[in-house]
Amino acid sequence: MTSQFPDVSEILVYPEIIELNDLVKPSEYPLEGSIGRLPIARDITKFSGLRDYLPSDPLKFISWKHTAKTGSLRIKQYEPVVALNVLIAMNGKTNEYAWQGVNSDSFERTVTLTASIAKFCLDKKYSVGLISNSTAAYSGKWINLAVSGSTKQFELIMENLAMVGQHTIANPLNMYWNLKGN
User: Fold this and answer.
1) Residue 62 DSSP symbol
2) pLDDT tens, position by position, 59-107
3) Partners of 87 in the β-ladder
4) Using an 8 Å Cβ cutoff, are 136 and 90 in contact?
5) Which of 177, 143, 170, 171 is nearest to 159 (CA)?
6) Quick one: CA torsion of 138, 128, 87, 80, rounded to 10 degrees?
7) pLDDT single digits (tens) 122-166
8) How far apart are CA 15 and CA 60, in angstroms?
9) Are residues 90 and 106 both part of a single domain?
């Protein structure tokens, strides 16, 4: 059965989304739901309280005023900085050497998994970005979407993945580090 679309010159087909919970058991999420001992960074504008000094504490967080009052070292505590940023690096290369050609099934699975990871992260309210060494079929430019929590981010990711071609230009992580100037 064929359908006719008289006024449409192009149709954009988004990648399939698979449920990641079907692929990964909760025991395979080693970090989800766990709380680290020390936050990566503290927001010094958000004071949360005082506690006793530990030898591992930086001296700059000692509250000398409260230490003088109580006679024991007290540490100022601040709220941790929370930034849930994910940069997905999709490697569209399906074979070790270019002369080996492209494995279309492997490439499609890579695109499907990339779209599914993006959806999973955005559903958890992470800010998500996407880079890939695969180029857009219409322009030959590689995918480079900055990390964002915008409501339009999922649509942008899906559009880019829908238009991605199987031609690759480099390793996506090398591209990222070169872009960052490192």
Assistant:
1) B
2) 988 999 999 999 999 999 887 766 678 899 888 887 777 777 777 888 8
3) 129
4) no
5) 143
6) 160
7) 998 889 999 888 888 777 778 889 999 898 999 999 999 998 877
8) 50
9) yes
- Residue 29 domain-assigned (yes or no): no
Q: Which two tokens stand for residue 54?
A: 């530990």
For residue 14, tell me if it sits in a domain: no
Q: Which of 51, 80, 109 is the endpoint of a domain?
A: 80
Name the amino acid, one letter, at 146.
A
CA distance 140 to 64: 60
Tell me, what DSSP letter sits at residue 74? E
Rg (CA), the chain: 24
Pairing of strands 42-52, 127-136: unpaired
What's the domain range around 115?
83-180
Q: Are residues 134 and 173 in the same domain?
A: yes
Token pair listed for 82: 């929370």
Query: CA-CA-CA-CA torsion for 59, 64, 68, 73, nearest 10 degrees?
Result: -30
CA 128/CA 88 separation, integer angstroms: 7
d(CA 70, CA 76): 14
Contact 76, 63 (CB under 8 A): yes
Number of separate domains in the chain = 2
Residue 52, C-beta contacts closer than 8 angstroms, at least 6 positions apart: 72, 73, 74, 75
